[in-house]
Amino acid sequence: MKNYSANAIRNVVILGHSGSGKTTIAEAALNAAGVTSRLGRVDDGNTVSDYDPEEIKRRVSISASVIPIEWLDNKINLLDTPGYFDFVGEVKECLAAADIALIVVSAKSGVEVGTEKAWDMAEEAGLPRMFFINGMDDENAELDKVIEDLRAHFGTSIAPMQVPIKEGGKFTGLVQVVRREGKKYAGGKASDCPVPADLNDRVEELRAVIEEAVAESDEELMERFFNDEHFSVEEIETALANGIRECVTAPVYIGAAAQGIGIRELLNGIVWNAPAAATCKVRAAKDLKTDEAIELKCDEAGPLAAFVFKTIADPYVGRLSIFRVLSGVIKKETPLYNSRSDFAEKSSHLYVLRGKEQIEVTELRAGDIGAIAKLQNTATQDTLCIKEQPIEVEQIQFPEPLLSMSIVPKAKGDEDKIGQSVAKMLEEDKTLKMEINSETKQLLIAGIGENQLDVLVSKCKARYKVEVELEPPVVPYREMVKTKVRVQGRHKKQTGGSGQFGDVHMEFEPSGDLTEAYVFEEKIFGGAVPRQYFPAVEKGIQECVKSGPLAGYPVVGIKATLVDGSYHAVDSNEMAFKLASIIAFKDGFMKAKPALLEPIAQIDVWVPDNYTGDIMGDINKRRGRILGMGMEGKRQKISGEAPMSELLKYATDLRSMTQGRGEFTMRFDRYEEAPMDVQQKVIEQRKRDSE
């Protein structure tokens, strides 16, 4: 593959609802460009894009892949992304490397949740948008309805570029409206054809709409439009390209990717109308020497800056860092400097990726996408530059993982292997997080959704030969007392020679501060307990509050006061008084009306307004309370609070309730006494677990 300048590079991220045909479009583009001799099929597991064993097994995209093709003396880097919402991290990475979003829409289903999310993410990233209506060969395809649907959701920017040709009710070709050119497909091959007579009026109607949109972009063109002048193809396409780049026009192409119909015309449209890398803004950056923001331009003569937007951590081929060259040129011998890790990386090979295929190249210029293998201290989001001009590029904002599960080995002794295996996968997926809970000692893995965590479990087994399973995390309850009691703790042991003797009288009561485990005081008069034993009494309390007598959870908010006691001049020692205080604590705690406290979380939910009632009702069912509501943009924000035990799978439940349209954040707020029935269930479960 030859080297291309930024003016001849198009970086296109393919977005859309799961199952709309994104991977099939990439395969059809490869076939149209002559890279492959036959069209790969997702169902057959032989696509270039979905090459991971998990993707082949599940027949869905899990990871993003780069599919470069050469077309009309240009290079098009297609970034094929997953449609499942669990793998949104892959989408975010590709949005950071792309210059335009191609949103795929089903000709049968029209605008779906994934379509809306794709538009919103592209808009958030500041990317122009174009559409491809796929599946026009389906007998239930309704193009006019889909166009109407697009306009209802996304406004007047929607600009249909083609009209379908149908023969005998079957989709056999299309007409390019701007150029008034017809194409017919038979046996997978395209041929030119005149515009069918019955489509002339429709073609001219759409061309007039496009001309009007073009006229609004320029005063001179507007004057000519009012004088009933028609514009040339070049004028229209130049104005369209400007409108697309400024995000005021979203062209719509049609086709049937599985049959290869419309793919050539789509690729033509990308070259003719989509912005070249040289014309696009690059990610914000700063000069680390001055700590000031700098404006990078997609220019080969600029300072070297390559942004690593994705990492592949394969146990067999090692780490592969995939990057976009934002500025400058990278050659095989270029010394690279990682500005985050302050590390000089060595690179002997540069690659262009096509799925899993690594095509070695001598250089990569500004605007292009490539990869380097086995960099030692480089991760996703790092910037590669030269040490004399250290640059740091703006980070990608990944969504926080909110579904947390405990990951445990099926075989004893595999705990260390789990940590190592999951750490490798965390290099690939920045929406996964792993931690060891300091209280429960559980290894927790948090992600966006259940499918994502299920894939992680499968990869542990397939890649790293470690079988694991997921369990609900232990909810960190607390124990407290509700009343004041006075008890005696007495430890006496005689085994010949000097024995052990410690005697304490203690009061236990609520301290009023649930943020502290305990408060210890002494009110001893007359030396009933010598002062040197006070620390030993407190040590007993310290030990007890780690695991309460009620259900083994940590104790909070208890005040322990040493008020009296006795000692033996020979047999008393620190250990005896520590054991005496433990006896007193366990007795007093159970007499002081013990109770379980449950963690309460504050939760903010954003949903379309028509889901408001369902969400409020659901929060109430979870023993929660609504604290406030209000519109934020196009969505309703609902603020509330609920026990964390009721929110363990809220990420999955909210997606189900809102068809994926809802989002939420959650954070711990405080502890609160749990209802008696909840306390009883928790206590009984703890007893069963300890048996």
Structure description:
By secondary structure, the chain is of the alpha+beta class. It has 5 domains: 6-199 and 247-279, Rossmann fold, CATH 3.40.50.300; 285-393, Translation factors (Elongation Factor Tu (Ef-tu), domain 3); 403-471, Alpha-Beta Plaits; 478-592, Ribosomal Protein S5, domain 2, CATH 3.30.230; 597-690, Alpha-Beta Plaits (2-Layer Sandwich). It is 27% helix and 33% strand. It has 16 helices and 37 strands. The strands form 9 sheets. Strands 2-3-1-4-5-11-6 form a 7-stranded mixed sheet, with helices on both faces. Strands 18-17-23-14-15-22 form a 6-stranded antiparallel sheet. Strands 29, 34, 35, 36 and 37 form a 5-stranded antiparallel sheet that branches. Strand 4, helix 4 (113-124) and strand 5 (129-134) form a beta-alpha-beta unit. Helix 12 (534-544) crosses helix 13 (574-591). 43% of the residues are buried.
The biggest beta sheet reads: 7 strands, mixed
Q: What is the mean predicted local confidence, pLDDT?
A: 94
Report the principal-axis shape. elongated
Q: Quote the distance from N terminus to C terminus.
A: 66 Å
Instruction: Supply the helix-strand structural class.
Output: alpha+beta
How many extended strands?
A: 37
Do you know the CATH architecture of the largest domain?
A: 3-Layer(aba) Sandwich
